[in-house]
Design brief:
Order of helices and strands: EEHHHEEHEEEHEHHHEEEE
Helix content: 25-40%
Structural class: alpha+beta
Largest sheet: 4 strands, mixed
Length: 292
């Protein structure tokens, strides 16, 4: 075998190893599964800080000697095109550790741990998360990332703070457009939606392929009230399960609004008559009125 056909271990991403003759890359199965889970969490709306926190709580081993996951490691992995097999040759100038791209990228150089569609979906989710990032605390602020849309203009409904109050609000409102000029206090919205999804009657109204996920969701919701030690992990699990059960949440934060409010009007919170349409996957939609 020629020298050129052999691959160096330094070129291998951390989830890959080499065959004994150093000619081919092979998966490190445990690490490959972790990479796949990180992308799933990112697409589910979690940022790099939240993912690192979640992995630490689950005591998932890192790929280095560090005892804890670092958000910069997560962020780099989510941007690394080697995850779907691409390799960018680089040249290194004397005294410089950062390489300079040398020639075009090579597709299929590495075995892909995810597909290109998954990579692209994670990039979209990352940008959305950066645009509406919450605090980097020990709790997962918004479990509905990517699910909510505005009933009045069709825009995304995002997590935001108004006068230090956490709310869900149409992104068009924040860009000084008219729309409804209304917001829904996040705590009330979460309580309303989760109470509906945890109702026993719903189990008979979902398809068989969704029942296991719905039962798991109900258990996680119940656990939030008494299991404080696993609160963060439970909220992450709820985020992932919601994606399996709910296709979308159409937010009517101002109720049956017929005329958009003026773009200079004050943003009003928790207006009477507010409700959310819960669209189940492979199932009907339901109107859920605020329980506050």
């Amino acid at each position: 075998m020629s020298k050129e056909s052999k691959k160096k271990i330094s070129a291998a991403p951390s989830w890959l190893g080499l065959t004994d003759d150093r000619s081919s890359f092979v998966f490190l199965p445990d690490r490959a599964e972790i990479v796949q889970e990180i992308f799933e969490l990112a697409i589910g709306g979690m940022g790099s800080y939240a993912i690192a926190n979640y992995l630490d709580q689950k005591r998932v081993p890192t790929f280095t000697q560090s005892l804890f996951w670092d958000h910069t490691t997560i962020d780099y992995m989510l941007r690394n095109r080697a995850t779907y097999g691409e390799y960018q040759p680089k040249s290194f100038a004397a005294g410089h550790k950062k390489g300079i791209p040398s020639g075009p990228p090579i597709s299929g150089y590495y075995p892909a741990v995810i597909d290109k569609a998954t990579f692209d979906a994670a990039q979209v989710a990352r940008q959305q998360n950066l645009a509406q990032r919450g605090r980097k605390g020990k709790d997962l602020a918004n479990i509905f990332g990517g699910l909510c849309s505005c009933a009045y203009c069709g825009g995304a409904v995002i997590f935001h703070r108004i006068s230090n109050v956490q709310v869900l609000v149409c992104e068009q409102v924040l860009s000084d457009s008219a729309c409804s000029r209304s917001a829904w206090t996040y705590k009330d919205f979460e309580t309303t939606v989760l109470a509906f999804l945890a109702h026993p009657a719903l189990l008979d109204r979902v398809g068989e392929e969704r029942k296991t996920a719905l039962l798991d969701l109900v258990e996680e919701i119940k656990g939030l009230s008494f299991d404080q030690d696993r609160r963060y992990a439970r909220r992450v699990n709820i985020t992932l399960l919601l994606k399996q059960i709910v296709a979308g949440l159409i937010v009517h934060s101002a109720g049956n609004l017929s005329v958009p409010r003026h773009s200079s009007a004050q943003i009003r919170k928790d207006m009477d008559g507010r409700y959310v349409e819960i669209q189940l996957r492979d199932g009907p939609s339901y109107r859920c009125i605020s329980i506050a």
